[in-house]
Structures are given as C-alpha cells and as structure tokens.
C-alpha cells in the first residue's frame, strides 16, 4: 500500500423502524448518505437484501422496494432518499426486518 492520501467517499444506509399496521401499505423513507461531497455526479443502485432469522421480512409480501432503483447524487449532494412500501397484516408476529443492499456505484466512490 502507498502512503497517505484520503480514501474515496463511501455510501451508507440509515437504520429506520416503522409500525407495519394491520392492513394496507405505508411508506418508510430510506436515507442513503455519501460520506463526503464529491464534485461530479455519482450514482448507486439499491435492492432489498435478504436477511436471515425468524424475524426476516419477505420481499414482495412484507415490503416492496421501488423500481427504478438508482439514486443520483448531484455534485455536492450527500444524501438521497427513497420510499419502501411496508405491507400491513393482522398476523401476530415478531418485529420484522429487511435490508437494503447498495450496488454498482458509478463515480468517485469506494
């Protein structure tokens, strides 16, 4: 490895919690952040990520990740948001969780 220098900016997804309700759908806002501003347009795609365990939510049944699934960060912008639909049901179940996986970054990112 070389000496010094700063690393390229990276993306992160903020944790969020929401009550799903007993019926219908509600939206939860997912925030994706860039660790530091960059001086050119940067893009990142996202998908629902499979999580394991008894508390794992099922994509398409418990939550719906929207399409298109690419966020565009204009120069200088460090946060973008998108909505995920949470599908309510009357089942007595554990608090469920799902993940968001970021893929295919384009631009000066790690």
Secondary structure tally, helices:
0
Low-confidence stretches: 1-5
SS-based class: mainly beta
The major beta sheet can be summarized as: 4 strands, antiparallel
Dominant shape? elongated
Tell me how many strands there are: 7
- What percent of residues adopt helix (DSSP H or I)? under 10%
Widest beta sheet: strand line-up: 1-2-6-4
Whole-number radius of gyration? 17 Å
Instruction: Give the ordered list of helices and strands.
Output: EEEEEEE
Question: Cα distance, first to last residue?
Answer: 16 Å
Oligomer kind: single chain
Portion in strands: 35-45%
Q: On the 0-100 scale, what is the average pLDDT? A: 87
Structure, described:
There is one protein chain. The chain has strands at 11-13, 25-34, 42-49, 63-64, 70-73, 79-87, 99-106. The protein is elongated, with a radius of gyration of 17 Å. Helix content is 0%, strand content 40%. The chain has 110 residues and is mainly beta. The protein contains no helices and seven strands. Strands 1-2-6-4 form a four-stranded antiparallel beta sheet, with no helix packed on it. A three-stranded antiparallel beta sheet has the order 5-3-7, with no helix packed on it.
Structure described in brief:
This protein has 110 residues and is mainly beta.
């Amino acid at each position: 490895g070389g000496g010094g220098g700063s690393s390229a900016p990276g993306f992160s997804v903020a944790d969020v919690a929401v009550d799903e309700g007993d019926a219908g759908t509600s939206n939860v806002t997912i925030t994706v952040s860039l660790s530091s501003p960059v001086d050119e347009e940067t893009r990142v795609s996202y998908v629902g990520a499979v999580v394991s365990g008894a508390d794992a939510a099922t994509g398409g049944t418990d939550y719906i990740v929207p399409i298109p699934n690419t966020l565009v960060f204009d120069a200088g912008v460090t946060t973008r948001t998108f909505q995920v639909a949470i599908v309510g049901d009357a089942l007595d179940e554990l608090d469920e969780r799902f993940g968001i996986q970021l893929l295919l970054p384009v631009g000066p990112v790690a």
